[in-house]
Amino acid sequence: MRATFYIWLMMVGVTFFAQAHWMAALKIMNPAALWVTVLIGLASLWAPIVKGVLQGLQNFLGLGWVLVLDGAGRFAAIALILWLGGQAAGGMTGALAGQGVSLALGVWLIRRLLFAPRERMEWLPWLRRVVPLSLGIGSIQFMSNADVVY
């Protein structure tokens, strides 16, 4: 999760230095909407990791609750904020709140692994197995999407 945090920090830096550009390009009136979206980016980077670890642990009850809270929590928070008169920034804040609750539950469920002693990763054997699979499914995805475009 540390590497994804560094990727997110780079995204924050780009957003900070090009805030005016992004707001104009995306026609955003309230800067809070942009910054809440950046925070959602961190949650979106971490959510698949947490869900994957829960699946790997075969904790399907916890995974199910994380998935349900992710969808239902976002929907409920957005509906409440918009019902109270919120605008786009409020809706994005609702999405962040719902996703945050889901992510917090997932992190709590895998907390023992987050603080466990680390082992050395053998990258080369792992890459030898993963790269062909990724290229195979990636080429199918590319051809399926390129076929629609062209």
Structure description:
- The chain is mostly helical.
- The protein has a domain of 103 residues.
- It contains seven helices and no strands.
- Helix 4 runs antiparallel to helix 5.
- The protein is globular and about 50 Å long.
- The model has no long low-confidence stretch (mean pLDDT 91).
List keywords for this structure.
84% helix; globular; mainly alpha; 150 residues
Summarize the structure.
The protein contains 7 helices and no strands. The protein has helices spanning 2-17, 19-25, 31-56, 60-83, 88-109, 111-114, 123-149.
Average pLDDT, rounded to a whole number, is: 91
Main beta-sheet annotation: none
Percent helix, as a range, is over 70%
Number of strands: 0
Total of helices:
7
N- to C-terminal separation? 38 Å
| Shape summary | globular
Pick out the low-confidence regions. none
Q: Sketch the topology as an H/E string, one letter per element.
A: HHHHHHH
Structural class: mainly alpha
Strand content is under 5%
What is the alpha-carbon Rg in Å? Answer: 19 Å
Secondary structure elements and pairings:
Layout: H1 2-17, H2 19-25, H3 31-56, H4 60-83, H5 88-109, H6 111-114, H7 123-149
